[in-house]
UniProtKB/TrEMBL annotation:
Catalytic activity: D-glucose 6-phosphate + UDP-alpha-D-glucose = alpha,alpha-trehalose 6-phosphate + UDP + H(+)
Name of the molecule in the record: Trehalose-6-phosphate synthase
Subunit structure: Homotetramer.
Signal peptide stretch: none
Transferase among keywords: yes
Amino acid sequence: MSRLIIVSNRVAPISEGGPAAGGLAVGVYDALKETGGMWFGWSGDVLSSGQPQIAVEERGPVTFATIGLLRRDYDQYYRGFSNATLWPAFHYRADLVQYDRHDFEGYRRVNAWLAQQLVPLLRDDDVIWVHDYHLIPFAQALRAAGVHNRIGFFLHIPFPASQVLLAVPPHRELVEALCSFDLLGFQTKPDLRAFCDYIVNEAGGSVERLDDGLTRIDAFGQTLRAGDYPIGVYPDEIAELAKAGERGKPVRTLKATLHGRKVIMSVDRLDYSKGLVERFRAFERLLDQAPSQRNRVSFVQIAPPTRADLHAYQDIRLRLEAESGRINGRFAELDWTPIWYIHRQYERAVLAALFRASHVGYVTPLRDGMNLVAKEYVSAQDPDDPGVLVLSCFAGAAQELTGALIVNPFDTDGMADALAVALAMPVAERQARHRDMLAQLRQNNVSVWRDRFMRDLSRVGKREAGASAAAGVVPMPLAD
Ligand code: ADQ
């Protein structure tokens, strides 16, 4: 069996069964343990000077290879082009795109440098799986270094409509670079369609739907395949964690403080794509329009800050602090705080238990590749007395979780109405919706996601020596 090489911006800090390990990290790590292989990426260290050195750690059949970044590389590759240009553009926030040509050069330089670090560690029959928007040029860089292995790519975030992608000045270079992979995986069909639309209408390429469900792409002198692979969770493990935490301190404290009131729960990284301001305002609208809900329900928003050194993230934090203060000032009473806004990270087990203790999961991103919180919320519920998921139509998860109350996060009244419906929903309807969603989550758990992608990647033909975009030679032959 070929070795699997996972390449991602950050290598997940896995301690087996440990609390920090998320479903994705565990899912990918499981695959590595099965096939044997390596996880390669940035260590998270930023060095002010010197020459970063790879640290290699063997844990059974899995090798972890990590390397630090120099400050300038971090600024241009990570803070700059990845998170100030690509992240907003891919989340349809062209208004927040900051583009600096030097950052793009840095992004390409770091991708090429990381690829060069990986090359000496590779074997001929390794299968390479690259993750996410930080590493779009990675396969192109490996091909330029003479690597002909199978290389797949999974994009965890949305792929934007062409008219939005055009706001990123080097859009063409990016899409051309993507075409150096053998298999591209997107979260949902709409993302795949957006990519195909760019290929046909902007790049002059062609797309063809194949019998095996994949799409064949011909563009920039390359032939590759693409498909949709909605990422999953391990629902039964999350349910176990949630059940185990039912009598734990966090849940007891929450219940004691609520005094029988209902609770609406949201958990997100503090990011402008998550729609927090709109969500706060819709909760305010609920209190405005349904005075009977006042002092009967609290909204808990857990949102640890991320990327705090970027201006757009400082801005969203200030806006949220202002909104929660304003709404609480307007409605709070001596014995009731409407919004609890908490800036911290919790262990997975605690989050799962809090999800189970809450009545409504309020997950309303303005755009999200998938949104695992929505899937974790459903997984954590008690099937006899489940909470209701209120879910944005712009989360990838909405394609699968049709038993949720699907809302448009730009429609404040619509969201307030959905909250009211969720809070009043009879138990039989809650059970039926939950049953449908749980069945879907079990059917497409994170192992299924990973195995589908690996199976499709193993089916594509290996690149022939000399076939590279740079050389502009033969398109890659694909085997069925
Ligand atoms: P994210 O944008 O990080 O992921 P999401 O899918 O919701 O978004 O995953 C967040 C993870 O972090 C969840 O597992 C959640 O439980 C955890 N988390 C969030 N807040 C936390 C807190 N306060 N304490 C502890 N844990 C917390 C990107 C894409 C998504 C895509 C995923 C996976 O943006 O669209 O679903 O990758 O592909």
